[in-house]
């Protein structure tokens, strides 16, 4: 069975040209003029692009005393509706838990995915077991990216000695560390002070995480990665200070990548001053939304190439879950949705305004991350032999974003009321047409795990499971028995 996408314009990270694209057995079979097939999809007036890859999601994640509300079924359905054909979720071990046991839980959850997916492994604690497990995770499970939290003190945060030990081990294995870069000690101190002064509302969340905490932690992680001899991927870059550190590192020849989120690019800190508590709390995420100066910096980074990838950090909580934090902003579950809206919002506010070219749009939504993750050109490409993860993009299709129309399982949308122009006409996941002219035809469980090879090891000498200094007692407070 051959499906041909007819009369469209192929747009990749580096080329724009008229061609038909035929798909067979889940792969791209042919690209050229006047192709014939058993079935045709009309792409007249549309751009035929690599499906989006969102490398930053938290589906059904245990967090802050609850679970994020989109699971692998609703989350990937939302992604496909918006043109995203692959996600990468973070497998999160509990304190003291083996990485492999955590992966088993993620294997179970992800069995319901509607599109292909991969995992990053989170390093939430450090010890000999983690050191040993890392090798199995990289060499047998096909996971080459490991996330470290420099925030969430008392729960997910790792200290600098642990960070250096982990980065050194990853250097040896040819894996890439990622960081959530906020100074968790400072955030904890500022949060306690704000609460003591009676600042309990969602706006205090933003005050507790100023851009300096992100700039400091980003710089620190870059320097530690440099000393360990590893590249570094910085997730959810939200401010100029963090961007500046990344820009400088890249100019010095360091392999450092920065990932802004669609939320930080398009929503600002004024959301936290909305008089409606629910409105503000629904937008509480870490890092928080920033002002226009920071937004302009992020857009400039995407255009100039100092920032590489646009993601969502999709971590959706219902209004009811957000209300856990009524009276104490530190208990508002951190996270916002975005999987369905990332591509249309970035197209509208990027390509639609001239801030990004179409090719840059493809690069930052798909191709760049496929290369960083080591799954290019199976993913992120319109090439013969690549997986047929394709979005047929209609630049004239418009809608106003509304929670009532979304695929996500939550009861609101942080982009509510935003008008977007540029939406998928068809979304193909490994050849299967999951979104057909607005109709949702997703298949639960269709998605497959994407294994990713490590890169060549870069540094062996510094690897060790112990921290360089004598082990200190690690204070872990307030951690539920399961989850974090
Ligand atoms: N930030 C969030 O807002 N939610 C999930 C985890 C994170 O780092
Ligand atoms: Zn994070
Ligand atoms: Zn995250
Ligand atoms: Zn808008």
UniProtKB/TrEMBL annotation:
<dbReference type="Pfam" id="PF01979">
    <property type="entry name" value="Amidohydro_1"/>
</dbReference>
<dbReference type="GO" id="GO:0055086">
    <property type="term" value="P:nucleobase-containing small molecule metabolic process"/>
</dbReference>
<dbReference type="InterPro" id="IPR011778">
    <property type="entry name" value="Hydantoinase/dihydroPyrase"/>
</dbReference>
<comment type="similarity">
    <text>Belongs to the metallo-dependent hydrolases superfamily. Hydantoinase/dihydropyrimidinase family.</text>
</comment>
<feature type="domain" description="Amidohydrolase-related">
    <location>
        <begin position="47"/>
        <end position="415"/>
    </location>
</feature>
<dbReference type="InterPro" id="IPR032466">
    <property type="entry name" value="Metal_Hydrolase"/>
</dbReference>
<keyword id="KW-0862">Zinc</keyword>
<keyword id="KW-0479">Metal-binding</keyword>
<dbReference type="GO" id="GO:0072527">
    <property type="term" value="P:pyrimidine-containing compound metabolic process"/>
</dbReference>
<dbReference type="GO" id="GO:0046872">
    <property type="term" value="F:metal ion binding"/>
</dbReference>
<feature type="modified residue" description="N6-carboxylysine">
    <location>
        <position position="147"/>
    </location>
</feature>
<dbReference type="InterPro" id="IPR050378">
    <property type="entry name" value="Metallo-dep_Hydrolases_sf"/>
</dbReference>
<dbReference type="InterPro" id="IPR006680">
    <property type="entry name" value="Amidohydro-rel"/>
</dbReference>
<comment type="function">
    <text>Catalyzes the hydrolysis of dihydropyrimidines and of the structurally related DL-5-mono-substituted hydantoins, to produce N-carbamoyl-D-amino acids.</text>
</comment>
<dbReference type="InterPro" id="IPR011059">
    <property type="entry name" value="Metal-dep_hydrolase_composite"/>
</dbReference>
<comment type="subunit">
    <text>Homotetramer.</text>
</comment>
<protein>
    <recommendedName>
        <fullName>D-hydantoinase/dihydropyrimidinase</fullName>
        <ecNumber>3.5.2.2</ecNumber>
    </recommendedName>
</protein>
<keyword id="KW-0378">Hydrolase</keyword>
<dbReference type="GO" id="GO:0004157">
    <property type="term" value="F:dihydropyrimidinase activity"/>
</dbReference>
<dbReference type="GO" id="GO:0005829">
    <property type="term" value="C:cytosol"/>
</dbReference>
């Amino acid at each position: 069975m051959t499906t041909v996408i007819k009369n469209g314009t192929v747009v990749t990270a580096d080329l724009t040209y008229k061609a038909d694209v035929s798909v067979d057995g889940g792969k791209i079979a042919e690209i050229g003029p006047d192709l014939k097939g058993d079935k045709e999809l009309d792409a007249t007036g549309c751009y035929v692009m690599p499906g989006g890859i969102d490398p930053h999601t938290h589906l059904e994640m245990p967090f802050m005393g609850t679970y994020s509300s989109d699971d692998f079924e609703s989350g990937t359905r939302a992604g496909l509706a918006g043109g995203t054909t692959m996600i990468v979720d973070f497998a999160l071990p509990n304190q003291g838990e083996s990485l492999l046991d955590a992966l088993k839980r993620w294997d179970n959850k992800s069995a319901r995915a509607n599109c292909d997916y991969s995992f990053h492994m989170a390093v939430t604690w450090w010890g000999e077991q983690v050191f040993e497990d890392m090798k199995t995770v990289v060499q047998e499970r096909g996971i080459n990216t490991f996330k470290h939290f420099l925030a969430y003190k008392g729960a997910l945060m790792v200290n600098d000695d642990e960070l250096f030990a982990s980065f050194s081990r990853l250097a040896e294995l040819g894996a890439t560390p990622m960081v959530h870069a906020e100074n968790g000690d400072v955030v904890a101190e500022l949060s306690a002070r704000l609460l003591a002064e009676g600042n309990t509302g969602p706006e205090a969340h933003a005050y507790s995480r100023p851009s300096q905490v992100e700039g400091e932690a980003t710089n620190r992680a870059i320097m530690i990665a440099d000393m360990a001899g590893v590249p570094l991927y910085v997730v959810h870059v939200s401010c100029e200070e963090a961007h500046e550190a990344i820009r400088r590192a890249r100019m010095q020849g360091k392999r450092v990548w920065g990932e802004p989120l669609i939320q930080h690019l398009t929503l600002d800190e004024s959301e936290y001053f909305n008089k409606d508590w629910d409105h503000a709390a629904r937008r509480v995420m870490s890092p928080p939304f920033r002002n226009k100066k920071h937004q302009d910096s992020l857009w400039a980074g995407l255009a100039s190439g100092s920032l590489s990838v646009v993601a969502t950090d999709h971590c959706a909580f219902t209004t009811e879950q957000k209300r856990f934090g009524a009276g104490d902003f530190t208990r508002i579950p951190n996270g916002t949705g975005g999987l369905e809206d990332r591509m249309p919002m970035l197209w509208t506010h990027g390509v639609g305004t001239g801030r990004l070219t179409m090719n840059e749009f493809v690069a930052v939504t798909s191709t760049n991350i496929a290369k960083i993750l080591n799954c290019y050109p199976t993913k992120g490409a319109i090439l013969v032999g690549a997986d047929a993860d394709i979005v047929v993009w209609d630049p004239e299709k418009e809608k106003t974003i509304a929670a009532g129309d979304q695929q996500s399982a939550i009861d609101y949308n942080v982009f509510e009321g935003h008008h977007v122009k540029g939406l998928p006409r068809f979304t193909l996941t490994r050849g299967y047409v999951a979104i057909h002219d607005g109709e949702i035809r997703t298949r639960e469980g269709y998605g497959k795990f994407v294994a990713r090879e490590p890169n060549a090891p870069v540094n062996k000498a510094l690897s060790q499971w112990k921290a360089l200094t004598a082990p200190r007692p690690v204070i872990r407070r307030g951690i539920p028995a399961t989850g974090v």
